[in-house]
Design brief:
Radius of gyration: 22 Å
Number of strands: 4
Number of domains: 1
Mean pLDDT: 83
Low-confidence stretches: none
Order of helices and strands: HHHEEEE
């Protein structure tokens, strides 16, 4: 009887240990994904920081014709894709920063979706700024949000 009781207690302990290990694996995987997404967002934002103010734009044709419902429904646009700043002439050759939505492979060899938004922002001071928002999502459906970064660019500083 004592042996049966000892085996039952040991079994319960081992099951609890296995459950906690499984939970740790899931948490580590999620943290890795979020870290990779933040790095990808930083990389994309640095592309915008490296160019002149006048070149901060998205390709007009791509934004209006090729973006999907997930892109257009983001809170940045308020559900209206025409809210984005789009200048096709600044995007000749379609460098990465002009592409509103693309897929990239992260350091963890997983696919991520990088959505870029360029909108106008008018603070109370009155001078209009460009607001660049980078959103990183899982590349597979349903495009779970992993990271969001925003930065403003002022024409007077060129940055």
């Amino acid at each position: 009887m004592e042996l049966l009781l000892a085996m039952t207690i040991l079994n319960i302990g081992l099951l609890a240990l296995v459950a906690s290990l499984n939970s740790a694996v899931v948490a580590t995987k999620r943290a890795s994904q979020i870290s990779t997404a933040a790095t990808l967002a930083d990389r994309q934002m640095e592309l915008y920081r490296a160019i002149r103010y006048s070149a901060i734009a998205l390709d007009d044709n791509t934004t209006k014709n090729l973006t999907d419902a997930t892109y257009r429904a983001d809170a940045v646009l308020g559900g209206n894709v025409n809210n984005s700043v789009t200048t096709a002439t600044a995007c000749t050759g379609m460098p990465d920063y002009c592409n509103p939505s693309r897929s990239v492979t992260g350091a963890d060899r997983k696919l991520y979706r990088v959505d870029s938004y360029v909108t106008w922002l008018t603070p109370t001071s009155g001078r209009q700024l460009k607001l660049v928002t980078i959103v990183i999502r899982e590349a597979r459906s349903p495009y779970k949000l992993l990271s969001r970064q925003q930065s403003t660019f002022d024409e007077s500083t060129g940055l």
